[in-house]
Amino acid sequence: MSGYLFRLFGVVGLLLCGAPMALAAEANDLWAGLVQDIFNNRPMNDGSDVIGIEMPSRAEDAAIVPVTLRTKLAAGDSRQVRSITLVIDQNPAPMAAKFQLGPNANVSEISTRVRVNNYTDVHAVAELSDGKLYMTKTYVKASGGCSAPAAKNADEAKARLGQMRYRQFAKTGEGPASGAREAQIMIGHPNNSGLQMDQVTHLYVPAFFINELRLWQDDSLVLTMEGGISISEDPNIRFTYVSNGAKRFRAEAKDTEGHVFQREWKVDDSGT
């Protein structure tokens, strides 16, 4: 962990001192250290036929960069994807999110929005039921996403804290109660990164973000997310899964100040 903290504060120091060229020079060195710190130096296998990652090559807004993670296992492959870890190498806290997939949910796609703080490689690492890690990556040009001011003022953000909305989408040709489906969970939360400055006091706003999310169809787990400061304001998670015919969908989120937010919907109550 000490090595990780050294690299973390080194990156923050370079950002504060305005040294993009020095950051670029270190870019090739970061991944090996992140493999050690995040994955305990476990071997990384080529994941080009296991996991895909889609992001714009140049972000329009570095504070809300869309990212989609998609499983690519062949239909006859008996292995399952157990988890997907999203790593934004040059961010102050590189592990953006770790998704654990429910064993019977057949989650095949996850989309969200992230902050990107500097031109960077972004890695997706899938752990399969064979116990091995498989990695793929993309490159994104963006800067300043982690320190960008919040879109909403503090009072507005506080008023919306923990509010959840849910949407459910049937895949083409599927009925409302079974088959492949898409769902979306939206949570009102400032997700402060700790690097944003209050425009009035000129003091840094303390980090305050959703760090845990769990989703179920009835009592069957669909997925969990361990989140960090790289997830954008008002977290938005969209995912594809296979329905088990459940009548209800449940969500529980926790943040770094210990708040617990819970909602439950009928599957057909989409949009509420």
From TrEMBL:
<feature type="signal peptide">
    <location>
        <begin position="1"/>
        <end position="24"/>
    </location>
</feature>
<feature type="domain" description="Ig-like SoxY">
    <location>
        <begin position="36"/>
        <end position="146"/>
    </location>
</feature>
<dbReference type="InterPro" id="IPR032711">
    <property type="entry name" value="SoxY"/>
</dbReference>
<dbReference type="Pfam" id="PF08770">
    <property type="entry name" value="SoxZ"/>
</dbReference>
<dbReference type="InterPro" id="IPR030831">
    <property type="entry name" value="Fuse-rel_SoxYZ"/>
</dbReference>
<keyword id="KW-0732">Signal</keyword>
<dbReference type="Pfam" id="PF13501">
    <property type="entry name" value="SoxY"/>
</dbReference>
<dbReference type="InterPro" id="IPR014880">
    <property type="entry name" value="SoxZ_dom"/>
</dbReference>
<dbReference type="InterPro" id="IPR014756">
    <property type="entry name" value="Ig_E-set"/>
</dbReference>
<feature type="domain" description="Sulphur oxidation protein SoxZ">
    <location>
        <begin position="179"/>
        <end position="265"/>
    </location>
</feature>
<dbReference type="InterPro" id="IPR013783">
    <property type="entry name" value="Ig-like_fold"/>
</dbReference>
<protein>
    <submittedName>
        <fullName>Quinoprotein dehydrogenase-associated SoxYZ-like carrier</fullName>
    </submittedName>
</protein>
<dbReference type="InterPro" id="IPR038162">
    <property type="entry name" value="SoxY_sf"/>
</dbReference>
